[in-house]
Amino acid sequence: MTMPYSSLWRLAVGVALLAGMMSCGQDQGRTTPVDTTPPGGLPGGPAGSGAAVPAAKVEMTRENRFFPDVLVVRPGDTVEWSNNSDVPHTVTNDPASALHREDVSGPSSAPRFDSGYVLPGQTFRHRFTAVGEYRYACSLHEAQGMMGRIVVAPQVGP
User: What is the per-residue pLDDT for 53?
Assistant: First the structure.
């Protein structure tokens, strides 16, 4: 008996998700905020451009962590999350997608974001326009502590 391709694909994704959840480690390291904006700001794409060059990058690790787990960016900056692990991850600040609503948040004036599944080798980008703090999580590994923060600081100076 042969399985249809779509069934094999679903089985492979299910096995990968199960392996990822079983391999969840607990690394309780210290958090160091990283300000990725160089003095004088960043050259970027036009306002509202979803294809802007990322101002900052976050790695989704094999240890089921975001690295760095805290970033400081400016309004209009785009952050790119890269899945450098061998299991799927997600990036969400939507309470409807999080395991615990209190683990995620954002400014009331900002839209929520949710990457859906980011498979190994894939990326997800989000452009931050509203000043404030965004707490996000991987909905697949939130219980293991896979959470991060983006702080969008106001522009200072000319």
Answer: 84
Polymer length in residues for the chain: 158
CA distance 118 to 138: 10
- Mean pLDDT along residues 82-92: 97
pLDDT of the residue at 2: 53
| Domain ranges across the chain | 5-152
Would the pLDDT of 158 be above 90? no
CATH number for the segment(s) 5-152: 2.60.40.420
Q: What HEC string does 69-104 produce? A: CEEEECCCCEEEEEECCCCCECCECCCCCCCCHHHC
Task: Give one DSSP letter per residue of 2-25, joined into a string.
Answer: ---HHHHHHHHHHHHHHHHHHT--
130 neighbors 152 (Cβ within 8 angstroms): yes
